[in-house]
Amino acid sequence: MQKYECPCGYIYDPAEGDLDNGIEPGTAFEDLPADWVCPKCQAEQEHFFEAD
Questions:
Q1: pLDDT tens profile 5-49
Q2: Were 38 and a residue from 4, 6, 17, 31 both cysteine, which residue would form a disulfide, CB within 3.0 to 4.6 Å?
Q3: What is d(CA 41, CA 31) in angstroms, rounded to the nearest whole number?
Q4: 45, 31 contact by CB (below 8 A)
């Protein structure tokens, strides 16, 4: 699954999820809840881009 990066440098890795915010490992970026934001800077998903 594709990783996505926030402009602040946080990388959302689907293999890890975001357990601190209730996102289970294996959750694709496209399947994140609409209200999920970057746990580091609170940027909305629209600001993320595909990570290398």
A1: 999 999 999 999 999 999 999 999 999 999 999 999 999 999 999
A2: 6
A3: 20
A4: no
Over the range 8-20, which residues count as b (16 or more CB within 10 Å of their CB) and which as e?
A: eebebbbeebbee
With a CB cutoff of 8 Å and minimum separation 6, the contacts of 36 are 18, 21, 23, 45
Q: Are 51 and 11 in contact (CB under 8 A)?
A: yes
Phi-psi region of 12 (alpha: psi -120 to 50; beta: other; left: phi over 0): beta
C-alpha count within 13 angstroms, C-beta hemisphere, residue 27: 15
